[in-house]
């Protein structure tokens, strides 16, 4: 399997990240390791829609780079094999759960890695779905992931420049995702809510007046009001990176030295 690199070069991100944490100059590289680049315990699985999907958009933007930038920002030794990304542009939560679409939840569960990023919801609301229905569809996905006992980095929906009504609903959905009470009934998985909404919210232009709400994305963070530019991907990725760093710090797997050689 190939690995995605946010830097647009030929160096797999596993190698890039694996070589950043030992001293420069006379520093010695890590000792030969039990774990290699492709061990399941080192891999991060991705579930999402076009914000996570691997192909680039016209104009050269690489729209799944927010996850890669997240790993880079925290120096994590998790890696991103491209065949462990289960994301389809335009997918709703229901479609990603196998209702009228490819069951990305089942695909993610079937992989051996304990770590999953989950970012869905913008197409639920963008397609005219209600907040209540989106919550139900997400809850169904969460229940399946919980039974699998994974560690889920569940990300709030990034802002979407559109109508004020849609922007307000996106905000409400993001708030629900970040609320610990949302996961209180799930006991098998480890739930790590990640605020990927606030880092790219144009706070200076937020309007909270009822009926005229406006929650836009920072202009430089998006090229179409929804998908992330490299700048936006870095901002969102840093939020993910902080969560990953805190979570894997407690994972004894990562006490074993990491050999970045493929």
Element layout with pairings:
Elements: H1 13-18, E1 44-48, H2 65-74, E2 85-87, H3 93-96, H4 104-110, E3 115-119, H5 122-126, H6 131-148, E4 151-155, H7 164-178, E5 190-194, H8 230-248
Parallel strand pairs: 1-2, 1-3, 3-4, 4-5
Helix pairs in contact: 2-8
Model description:
The chain has 262 residues and is an alpha/beta fold. The chain has helices at residues 13-18, 65-74, 93-96, 104-110, 122-126, 131-148, 164-178, 230-248, and strands at 44-48, 85-87, 115-119, 151-155, 190-194. It has a five-stranded parallel β-sheet with strand order 2-1-3-4-5, sandwiched between helices. The radius of gyration is 18 Å and the shape is globular.
Side by side, the strands of the main sheet go: 2-1-3-4-5
Give the proportion of residues in helices.
25-40%
Structural class, judged by helices and strands?
alpha/beta
How far apart lie the N and C ends? 10 Å
Give helix and strand order, one letter per element, not per position.
HEHEHHEHHEHEH
**Biggest beta-sheet profile:** 5 strands, parallel
Radius of gyration: 18 Å
Instruction: Report the average pLDDT across residues.
Output: 80
* Number of strand segments: 5
Features:
alpha/beta, 262 residues
Quickly describe the structure.
By secondary structure, the chain is of the alpha/beta class. The protein contains eight helices and five strands, in the order αβαβααβααβαβα. It has a five-stranded parallel sheet, with helices on both faces.
């Amino acid at each position: 399997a190939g690995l995605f690199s946010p830097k647009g070069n030929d160096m797999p991100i596993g190698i890039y990240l694996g070589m950043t944490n030992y001293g420069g100059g006379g520093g010695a590289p890590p000792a030969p390791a039990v774990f290699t680049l492709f061990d399941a315990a080192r891999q991060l699985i991705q579930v999402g829609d076009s914000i996570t999907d691997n192909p680039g958009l016209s104009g050269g933007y690489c729209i799944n780079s927010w996850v890669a930038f997240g790993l880079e920002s925290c120096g994590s030794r998790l890696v991103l094999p491209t065949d462990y990304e289960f994301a389809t542009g335009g997918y709703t939560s229901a479609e990603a759960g196998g209702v009228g679409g490819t069951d990305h939840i089942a695909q993610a569960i079937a992989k051996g890695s304990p770590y999953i990023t989950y970012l869905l919801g913008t197409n639920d609301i963008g397609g005219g779905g209600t907040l209540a229905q989106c919550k139900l569809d997400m809850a169904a996905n969460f229940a399946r992931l919980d039974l699998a006992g994974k560690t889920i980095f569940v990300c709030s929906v990034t802002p979407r420049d559109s109508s004020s009504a849609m922007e307000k609903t996106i905000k409400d959905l993001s708030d629900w995702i970040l609320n610990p009470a949302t996961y209180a009934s799930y006991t098998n998985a480890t739930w790590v809510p990640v605020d990927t909404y606030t880092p790219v919210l144009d706070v200076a232009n937020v309007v909270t007046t009822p009926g005229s709400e406006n929650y836009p994305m920072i202009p430089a963070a998006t090229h179409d009001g929804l998908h992330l530019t490299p700048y936006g991907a870095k901002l969102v990725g840093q939020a993910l990176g902080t969560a990953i760093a805190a979570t894997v710090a407690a994972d004894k797997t990562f006490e074993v030295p990491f050999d970045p050689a493929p």
